[in-house]
Amino acid sequence: MHDPATGITARNLGPADLDDLHAIGSERSVVRQMGGWPWPPRRDFTATRCRPYAGDGFVWGLDRGGRIVGTVAVTRGELGYMLHPQVSGQGLGTRWVGLAVDHAFATLPLTRIDASAWADNAASAAVLRKLGFVHWQTRFEQAIARGFPVASHHYRLTRATHDRLRNADDCRKATA
């Protein structure tokens, strides 16, 4: 999938993406917000992520000009994403998370998508709320990169809410 507005193509990850993905995984500001990535960074761990996802859902590498600048995934009904700090703040998170959610509901037999954000990750929580996700639970969970439990806000978007919001957006665009 290519998005001309952002100049990004979503594609499967592969071994050739190791350097780019490891560069993202070596950014403390990114990894501290990820639930399952280690700190300090480990190249062998990153290598395990550099292959097409074969499970329930999808993982997209976000390719801009032949370089991976982030990832977005819906796996087993859960949403996850990360962006290199050099491209953060450009609206890419909202745009590509939205495209991934649309794709997931269009192609997977899901009734809902769940996501979470650490309590101190206001930017990620804002992306989720913009797309219609609703907070439903907060609990402490182990943050691997931080080395201690952190409050984690859990969000949920149902298919019915997604469809209602998409239909409202389509109507607004048609009358604009």
Automatic annotation (TrEMBL):
Pfam families: Acetyltransf_3 (PF13302)
GO function terms (MF aspect): acyltransferase activity, transferring groups other than amino-acyl groups
Gene3D superfamilies (UniProt xref): 3.40.630.30
Domain of life, source organism: Bacteria
Entry keywords, A to Z: Transferase
Domain N-acetyltransferase: 8-162
UniProt name for this protein: Ribosomal-protein-alanine N-acetyltransferase
Organism in which the protein naturally occurs: Loktanella fryxellensis
Lineage of the organism: Bacteria, Pseudomonadati, Pseudomonadota, Alphaproteobacteria, Rhodobacterales
